[in-house]
Each structure stands twice: as structure tokens, then as C-alpha cells.
Amino acid sequence: MTSRVEDYFGLRKGRAHIPYVVAESFPQLGMITALRFLEWVNENPQGVISLPTGKTPEFFIRWTQYLLTNWDSPAVSEIRSKVALNQKPDLSGLHFVQIDEFYPVSSRQKNSFFSYVMEFYIHGFGLNPDNALLINSDKIPLADGKHFSEVFPDLKVDLSLRYRTAETAAEIMQQKSIFLIDEWCWKYEQRIRVMGGIGFFLGGIGPDGHIAFNTRGSDHFSTTRLTPTNFETQAVSAGDLGGMAVSGNKLVITIGLGTICYNKDAVAIIFAASESKAKVIRQAVESEPSVLYPASALQQLSNSRFYLTEGATLLLKNSIHDYYQTFTPQKTEKAIIDLCSSIERYGDKITLDELQSDAICRNIPNLSLNTVQQVITSVKNKLKKGAEREEHQVFLHTGPHHDDIMLGIMPHVNRQLRSATNVSHFAVLTSGFTAVTNAYFKDLLLNTKHLLDHGQIQMVHYPDFFSTGYKYKWFKDVHHYLDKVAARDKVQMRRGISHRIVRILVQLYGINSIATLKAKIDELIEGLKTSYDGEKNSPDVQQLKGMIREFEEELVWAHFGVKLDHIHHLRLGFYTGDIFTEQPEIQRDVEPVIELIKKVNPTVISLAMDPEGSGPDTHYKVLQAIAESLRILGESRDLTGLRIWGYRNVWYRFHPADVNMIVPVSMNALAVLRQSFQDCYLSQVEAPFPSYELNGMFCDLTQKIWVEQMRQIQLLLGKDFFYNHASPLIRATHGLIYLKEMTVPEFLVHARELQQKAGS
Fold first, then answer.
1. 280, 293 in Cβ contact below 8 A?
2. Strand runs labelled E in 496-650
3. CA 163 → CA 151, 168, 178, distances in Å?
4. Are 150 and 176 in contact (CB under 8 A)?
């Protein structure tokens, strides 16, 4: 059936196997999806729906509730008139099917998908719970009527018991339970099919292309089942579950690709935002059906659709064709660099025939071999600029989270730190408490208690310590720790951390004695023991975890002699650890940035620059807080000489055509990056919240990216350019960082464009 919503917003197909709609912004993506959902409900008031969990549905949920609550208001009436949505839908007759759930996870946990469904869909949309088919792990029958916490006391399910002999009484019980779960899944599938299958399916898409938890390799005829996941899925789930130690050991119950496609008349929509999804979108939409691309299973449904932001369409053939309808020097540069990479040919070896044979390069105006030389010259100039050592500058390096500055531009920062004429400040704008697991925090507290019990934290015995002494010599904790790093004394390194833990506890809780200090530590440990992994901590524990991250940041830059009063912890208030976070506010989140800029009076500000507000949204919100600060400051002071350095780290990557500085990275710089990460960011060494791109520490992924960028430029300039260069710095280069330098007006225009894309 034709959708008036899709007709209005423009359904596209072109060379795609699945039609798609392109939204102008992430919020508009939610609005379009909500309108299409309500349109379908009007046509199918007793229909079967299946809706997603996580962060992607935020604006779908908000728009659905807004439209229904304000149905007759002028603003909503205007929206409805555009898509002829005249009748207010009644959602009470719908039948809801939960897509998936981690197993075993209690339905009482706020981070369970069951809890999410109940809060945002059953209660939030006013659905009838009696019509809901839900996955409640607490109620799935197991052997002898036991709860999963009794059958699987370590909360790990060994699926090999499906195929091997159970050897102990515990394994016999677990084996029986696994088969009972399989039976439950079969009945769940059966109930969906008895209802005629899912009529309206809405889902996101994972980094490996998964739909529901049908990961890469899933059978396109798969049904509801208990199954393991892959690393990519575990990595993106780590934030919800409290770290990889938890998500890596969890199984999932998921409906299958065959479940989604059982009803051949189903409307199946996949929505996705940001450049990070562009590759899997291209595979799903433009490739032939394959188990390597789970979402390609939807090609068998005539009513399947993808709703996408512009960034998510970046690699689709239609988007590439539209992008190159006109050429600029930047686009020419991109086309030539991409050609070098695609045919693995050095720039000075490319022939005119190869240029003219390329579908994109052949359209470059006045194309000749000189075109390639112009691109080579441009990139050499960027590299020259990136290799310059600055003098007499005041740098304010900012990061949304702790370790962002390091992972974005550390080698360039370190090079500028070597000049005594420069002054460098470092500011982390959020608390970062979500990056510290309960297990790591508990371990620190236990170690601190042990040291106190054995009299190894002498400062607590000073007469004035609990009244005033704790306020002083915080720098001593840093130097004590780094001295022990130099000595490779891990025991004393941990003692250094405990010194800081003690100061933090005394400051935060107003502790006045050793006995009270120990009691507070015991209380915190007990609280952590009774908390489930991924549970939102109390505000005081959030602050404690954040201050641990702040100590780690201080350690990194103290390597290079940066004083503690040049390291700033802003803890902006929009960062709450909730599923859906708040937008920055002027008084709460912008004014602290303004005051810092006034205090530092920088000549250069560095910041993380993500392409859409739909990525790691903290990055986007920090960028907008800085932009708003500069807009306000620009009304009362001259910012003409202020430069902005935009960087990207492990979440997004620049194309070299999009930047004007390319920074060389030596083997020494790579070694410093890795060693300082390992020594200082101890909460991250076990990679509790890794990127889906690499099963390891972020510093290793950063190195991988910088080396790949080196290869990209080597293919243009040739290896000899680096091997035989007159500069030792260039000869020593084995990685590259891409930076974009802007004036304040240029940055503010860019920030405004991002804001418009994000719809905020």
C-alpha cells in the first residue's frame, strides 16, 4: 500500500534493492518514522507491531508521544496535513512483540529490554499489556522450577550442553534448562505466527549489520532462539550492561530474520543515522542477499524500507553520484586520493587512461596528469603545515571525555609542549563516570581499605588531615604515582591511586576520622555488591567515578610537566548517564566554558569534531557548548586571532580532502601513546567499553587508524617522499593525524550547520 508519508518525504530507490527515505536531521528521522507508524496504525488498529530498544528510537518515541498528545494543536495539525494523517490513531488494540533480550538478565533491571519496553512502549504509548508478547527472563521456565540465578549462578550459559554429555549434577540441570528455553523460544515463535506474523517492524542496524540480534552469518530463515552474539554486538552493548566482562558473557534471545519476514505484507523499517552506519547500509541496500549482510534479508519484503540521515547514505551509489555532480578543488582531491586507494597506485604512477576510465575522475573539469600533481602539491602543503612547531601560543585542548585529547591529537600536543614559549591547558568537559565499571571501582576501594588497615597511607595520621590537610598536595598523588611508574613498581602505583581515593572521599563526604573513612569505604563496597552491572549509580558514586577518571587525565599530561592547575574538569551537567540525555543549557553548560576561555585566553582551541549529532552525542553536545560560548564571547571581545583545531578520534575519521593539516606521527610518538595509556588510564586497560572495530584498548585502535591514514597518503605521495625527505620528522613518520584548522567564524558556521542537521 502506498504511504503518503513516504510520498511526501520522497522515497528513493535508484540502484538500491530496498527503497529508502533520507531525513534532513536525526530528529526529523524520528518524526518521519513516527508519522509512518501512526499512518500504519490507522490502517491496522489491531495489528502486530515490534519496536526497538536503545538510543536510536529516542526521537521516534518523543515524536510519537508529541503527535498523539498534541493532535489537534496548530503545530501538529500543520504536520498532519502534509501527509494527510487526519484520523487520530488508537494504539490500545495493537499487539506488541518484543524483539530481543539479553539472557540471563532480570526484567527488574532498568537496563533490561523488558524494562525499556514497559516504560517507553507499553506505558509510554498506552498499549494494552494483555496484548503484549514479552521476553521476561525471570518467568521463562527452567529445570525444577528454579530461577536462572540458581541454575546459572555465574550468569553464564554454556550452549555446548546442547550437544555434549552433561557431566555433573549442575550441568544436568543446566542442560535441561537450556532445552526448556529452546522450547519457550519455539512457542514464542509459534505465537507470533498464529497472530499472522509481525505487521509493522521497526529496528536499528548494528555495526556488523545485525537486525534484532541476528548477527553476521545468521540464516535468513532463522526463527526465535537463544544464541550467542559476536564481538561487535558485545562491544556496542557493553555500555548498557556495565562493560565487556558482562556483555561478552551474555547470550541473547532474539526473533529471527525469518520471523521478521514471515508476513510478506509486513512494513519493515530500518532506521539509521551517522556516517558510522554508511558501510552496513550500503551492504544491506545495494548488495545481493547474503548471510554476511543480515539486513539484506529484508529484500524479500516488498514493503521494507530504510529511513536514513544523510551521513548514513554516504556510500550509496545515488549519494556518490549526486555528490560529484559538481566539482570543487576539495572534491577533486577526494576523487584522486580515492582512486589511488582503490587501484593501489602511487599518485605519480597514475596514467591518463586510468583517470579517464574512473567513473568519477573522468568528470573532473580540465582533467590531465597535472590534476594529480596539483592534488599532490596540496597534500604536501597540508603535511608541511602539520609538521610546524608553534611558538608563543596559548593552547586550550578540550575533550568530551577523558582520553579524547590523547586519542585525537596527542603527538601534535606533545610537539607543541616542547617549546617553553607555549602554554598548554587541558579541559575535559564531562565527568566520564560511565567509563568506570563497578568491578574496577570496587577493586580500588578494597585496595584502599587494605592499605589503611596496614597503616600504609600515612597522611591520614596527620593532625590536620581531615580538617584541612586533605585539600593540599593533590599534585603529590600524581608525582608519587609517576615515580612508581618510572620504577615499574605496580604495588606502589596502586598505592598512589589510593592516596587520591582517600582525598576524594574526605572531600566529598566531609569525613573527619579514620574510622569514619573506613566505614564509608565499607558502605560503598556493600552498595556496589548489591548493584547490578550497568545500573545507574547514585550521584555521589557517579562523582567518585568521575574523579577517578580526572586523576587519570592528570597523570597523562603530568608526563610532560603540565601543572594540575592547567588541567580543568568541567563536569557539564547535561551528562547524566541516562538513556536519553539532555541538551546543553546556557547557564549550566555554556557559562563554565565561557569562564574557562576568559581565564585561559587561548590563541588555539582544539575540540572533537563529529559529523552528525547522532554519533556519540556527548561529542556533539560539547562542540555546541563550545560554539555557543564563542558566539557569546564574540559579542564583547575580538576573537579574530583565535584558531580552532578540529580533530576526530576512534569514532569518526576525516577524509584527507576535508582537512588542511596533516600531522606526522613517529614510532616514538606511537610508543608514548600506548605506554601512557596503559600506565594512566587504568580503568580502561581491560577495554571495558571498546570500539566495535577492535577488541582491545582504544590506543591500539588509534594507532591502527593513524597507520591506515599514513598508507592513504603514501599511495598518493609515494613511499620515497617519506623515506628520502630532508626533514628527520618526515623520515621518521609511520602514522598521520588529520586536523582541520578554522577561524572562529568558520567554526561557528560549521557548528550551526551541524545544529541544523541535528534539528536542535
1. yes
2. 567-569, 604-608, 643-647
3. 18, 15, 11
4. no
